[in-house]
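TL;DR need structure tokens for one chain.
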Amino acid sequence: MAPVTRSGGPAPLVGIKLNPPIVKRALENANETLPNIVSGSGRRLQKLQDVISQQPTAYNTQTAYRLLAGLFNDTLTAARTLDSDNGLIQGYLQCGDWIHDYVQPYMDVVCHHYPRVRTVEAWLRQWNSQGGLINGTSPETILVRNTIRNVNPLMTPVQHGNELVTVYNLMTIYQDRCRIVHKNVSHMTEQRFYTFLKETEQKVLNGYYRFNNNQERLYVVRAVQSDKNRYYQWDANGNLEYFRSDGTPTGIYVNP
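>> reply
TL;DR here they are.
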């Protein structure tokens, strides 16, 4: 039990300061950073600042430790969320819609010859099951090679060979991006995913996220907008419904 004064209040813990220089510096850094990632942390940091500025009584010490522990726990939770969001951002950055646009002429031909193959990921799995790019005699490689010749008739044979490698590599990047995004999305609710897409688009547009150049910024915006249109559609009553990646409606609605 903590010692008390004659007045009945908790006695000061002599010699133990609550606001040494290291705590002051930590609070200064926290005030600059935490409000951006932990909701309501500004108010909680101010309360902590008020507590440690007072006498180091047992009550004030307990309050300070409780506030610190709460902020630390919420910061770790936010850090995990940021890590997940960062994976999505990197996925979008790896694959702006320009990659999809680039390979779409080839996918149109593929889908015509293989009606059951509707996506880049499905096609790449089938292509790789036959040896991928290395197997130049597989029906899959021959189909893409012939399509390249038809789409780019002015290219030289060497350029056609380079284009084949480019198409395969871009499809692989696209598949990796989808894997990253889908892995993260699988841990999100439909509402959380929509909120992430909306907030990410806003943050990219207002400069919150920084990129090496405007082209990368445009890639992310277009990819985010593409997923918004792909997964969320308005119904006749003005409600926003979540759709699966294959276009199947779910009957699950989100708050826009």
